[in-house]
């Protein structure tokens, strides 16, 4: 599980494998913009975004998939990238990259005081449903202070 609480805007590359050359001109500064950009990434087979609430903060969830046939060695810097910020970190701008083909990421993005906070947890098709439910329960019980 990874939590990104500090982004004023997040950049989502159009191609998560060729991310270094497919950053958008501007970052996503709202929950809706960020989730729409994630849903539009190539090769992701995303779920439909769903409305969620964590600790009274409204947001959206989306499930993303790393294709089973992804060859990480053919991706920029060996990373399959969901999001980053090339403005803040031009030399290592991919903040969220994945660990392997077939990875499933559940991303919950909530608006906390006008900023999109990203909560991302990963699992695989063979992960026990009880473990996935436990991770989801942990996220649903989060508080912001």
Which descriptors apply to this entry?
145 residues; alpha+beta; 5-stranded antiparallel beta sheet; two-stranded antiparallel ribbon; 2 helices; 7 strands; 15% helix
Commentary on this structure:
- Strand 6 (104-112) and strand 7 (115-123) form a beta hairpin.
- It contains two helices and seven strands, in the order βαββββββα.
- Helices cover 15% and strands 30% of the residues.
- It has a five-stranded antiparallel beta sheet with strand order 1-7-6-3-2, sandwiched between helices. The protein has a two-stranded antiparallel sheet with strand order 4-5.
- It is α+β, with helices and mostly antiparallel strands.
Q: H/E element string? A: EHEEEEEEH
Report Rg.
15 Å
The total of beta strands comes to: 7
Question: What oligomeric state best describes the polypeptide chains here?
Answer: single chain
Strand content: 25-35%
Ordered list of secondary-structure elements with their pairings:
Layout: E1 2-4, H1 31-40, E2 50-54, E3 57-65, E4 81-84, E5 94-97, E6 104-112, E7 115-123, H2 129-140
Antiparallel strand pairs: 1-7, 2-3, 3-6, 4-5, 6-7
Short structural description:
With about 140 residues, this protein is an alpha+beta fold. It is built from 2 helices and 7 strands; from the N terminus they run βαββββββα. About 15% of the residues lie in helices and about 30% in strands.
